[in-house]
Amino acid sequence: MAIPLLGRLDLLDWPIILVSLTLAWFEFLVSIITYALPNSLISFFTFITKQLYRLSSNPINLIKSEKKEKPVDNEVATYQYLKTEDKTSYNKKNYNLMVELLNANNVQEMVSLFGYDIETRIVTTKDKYLLSVHRIKGRKPREPNGKVIYLHHGLLMCSEIWVTMLEKYQNLPFILYDLGYDVWMGNNRGNKYSQKHLFYDLDSTEYWNFSLDEFAIFDIPNTIDYILNATKKKKLTYIGFSQGSAQAFASVSVNSDLNEKVDQLIAISPATTPHGLNSKFLDMLLKSSPNVTYLLFSRKVLMPSCIFWQKIMYPPLFDTVIDAANYMLFNWKALNISKMQKLSSYAHLYSTTSVKCVVHWFQVMSSKNFQMYHDVSPALSGLNPISYPLKNIQIPIHLIYGTTDSLVDINVMKRQLPAHTTTFPVENHEHLDNLWSTEVYDSVFKQVLTYLQQDLDEVESKLFRQNQDTKLIEDIIRDDVDRDSTIGVADLSASASSIEPSQSYLKLVNGFGSSEKQTTTSSFTGYQRPSVSSVGGSIFV
Ligand SMILES: *[C@@H]1O[C@H](CO)[C@@H](O)[C@H](O)[C@H]1NC(C)=O
Ligand SMILES: *[C@@H]1O[C@H](CO)[C@@H](O)[C@H](O)[C@H]1NC(C)=O
Ligand SMILES: *[C@@H]1O[C@H](CO)[C@@H](O)[C@H](O)[C@H]1NC(C)=O
Ligand SMILES: CC(=O)N[C@H]1CO[C@H](CO)[C@@H](O)[C@@H]1O
Fold first, then answer.
1. Using one digit for the tens of pLDDT, what is the confidence trace for 318-336?
2. Signal sequence: where (predicted)?
3. Residues in CB range of 202: below 8 A, 6 or more apart
4. Residue 226: which of 236, 216, 217 has the closest Cα?
5. Å from CA of 12 to ligand 3 middle
């Protein structure tokens, strides 16, 4: 006898549903418990983690049986987490900037650390979602070159990912702006900057009822139209990271008018049909049926508790968790991103999206076909999803991909895309390395500039020599900081004690409930930036 609805599940789905329900309940319980936790307990856990990180750069080493070297003296121990790395990249300037970036609340605060400003525009999509688009503004006059660039982020991200690098010249928007481009950074519906609909409640299932299809059909074309109208230009250049490039391919393939509006698509770490997850169990679990994923994560926003965890976690621990999760899910080892960089970048990695969007990706992975979202399993119903007609794209496409990126199967992608697609492999790079690695300017952004038909020698002389004359890079350095002093870990922790408590990068973490506000003034540009209040511990005990 058939049971309505549930009777349609495969045999294999049953044990999975049981596991999912257990996990879901577990997450529910944990979230109840954490919300009920008093602040003092949270501080206690933070304290414990801090002690663990003092003993070892990586808590995993603590459980390993091998003996540690003799205990280090206190001065050095305060900065153990960063110690294992090449010390040359640590100077006081970088460290202070990292603290500021880590604690920055929004993209506006982030770019202001580098002497830029943000102009926010609100795009209303045809289906009435409101999206923020961020346009870079400089505080200094520069010569516009009349070209427009549109940057778009990846899955579970927001526009902040473009401006997290500690070295100014490794942030793509700043290079492009200084070279004269009009630089815009888009945001998908549902992320940190676009959580608004004219009619739907943010808490409703209707609001979160979107997948890649809506990005492709509404968000991308509507944003492009908005930018072109605002700039009174005929064409722009699109640069996407990861899902941001997949969205663009999908979008151009179904909106043929975009062929006239975009002059080229530059795809950094593009992903259209990833193989699947590294963890076989999770892979099977999530590919099995969308209903399982919906049971596990609801039909609304994906894991909103991540933001909460990020807030209460000790930042190095948060980074370790992200690294471990990425390793389990995708087999990424994140060797090319320095720990210092991770502290600033990972803090701006996660933003919200819908569960449906992730379900859509799992459908693409399991069918090995870049197709639209569909509700019923085609194997059972004979109802087939529509594939995105990627071959329709007429504009030039350039793929910049890492050779060790487990999400990119370059041959599959080349077969899906039109024949005029060009590729540029980056040796030994994983997915995120193409955005945040220690040499991302040299290995990736130079190539982007080449696609933009910039003369690299000219660029370098413009960016770097100009900096020597007019101290552009130095804008970001506060007067009291000696930028050239490259110091070892011991010195770093010694100097760290002179950093005021308000600069502890834990200030956000335990900052709940305090109304104390402080402002720091950058002596060079004279702008005022509110800094988050500080309660609780610093890493420097
Ligand atoms: C989501 O949107 C589709 C149309 O795009 C509609 O058929 C479906 O009923 C909606 N689902 C929910 C839960 O609102
Ligand atoms: C284009 O911009 C003008 C203002 O500059 C505005 O009045 C008009 O509605 C815009 N058109 C579209 C299609 O967004
Ligand atoms: C998932 O659940 C819906 C009802 O909520 C049902 O119509 C659909 O057939 C189910 N899909 C699968 C693959 O079990
Ligand atoms: C420059 C650098 O550190 N490159 C490393 C990037 O990561 C790969 C492993 O994924 C290493 O083999 C490279 O040496």
1. 898 889 888 888 888 899 9
2. none
3. 195, 196
4. 236
5. 15
**What amino acid occupies position 187?**
N
Can you tell me the distance from the alpha carbon of 117 to that of 134, in angstroms, rounded to the nearest whole number?
10
Q: Cβ(366) to ligand 3 under 6 A?
A: no
Computed over every residue of the chain, the mean pLDDT equals 77
Q: What positions carry a catalytic annotation?
A: 242, 405, 431
Short-list 241, 264, 233, 98, CA closest to 172:
241
Identify the DSSP state of 244. H
Domain positions in the chain: 1-36+109-294+353-453, 53-105+305-351+466-541
458 lines ligand 1 (CB under 6 A): no
Q: Is the CB of 335 under 6 A from ligand 4?
A: yes
CA-based angle 170:174:176, to the nearest 5? 100
- Ligand 1 centroid–CA 209 distance in Å is 6
Alpha-carbon span 66 to 60, nearest angstrom: 12
Ligand 4: centre distance to CA 58 (Å): 19
Please state the atom number of ligand 3 nearest to the C-alpha of residue 377: 13
The ligand whose atoms approach the alpha carbon of 428 most closely is: 4
- Rounded Cα–Cα distance for residues 23 and 350 (Å): 22
Q: With 60 as the cut, is the pLDDT of residue 288 above it?
A: yes
Contact 479, 524 (CB under 8 A): yes
Ligand nearest to the CA of 217: 1
Quote the tokens at residue 16: 């999975």
Residues in the chain: 541
Q: What is the mean pLDDT of residues 280-293?
A: 74
- pLDDT tens-digit profile of 379-437? 666 778 899 999 999 999 999 999 999 898 899 999 999 999 999 999 999 999 999 99
Looking at CATH, the fold of the domain delimited by 1-36+109-294+353-453 is given as Rossmann fold (3.40.50)
Determine the angle formed by the axes of helices 315-330 and 305-312, rounding to 10 degrees. Answer: 140
Provide mean pLDDT across the span 280-308. Answer: 76
What is the per-residue pLDDT for 501?
36
pLDDT single digits (tens) 513-536: 333 333 332 322 222 222 333 222
Look up the pTM and report it.
Answer: 0.76
The separation between CA 64 and the C-alpha centre of its own chain, rounded to angstroms, equals 31
Q: Are 185 and 110 in contact (CB under 8 A)?
A: no
**Predicted local confidence at residue 174, as pLDDT:** 94
User: Distance between CA atoms of 187 and 194, rounded to whole angstroms?
Assistant: 7
What is the distance in A from the centroid of ligand 3 to the CA of 382?
Answer: 15
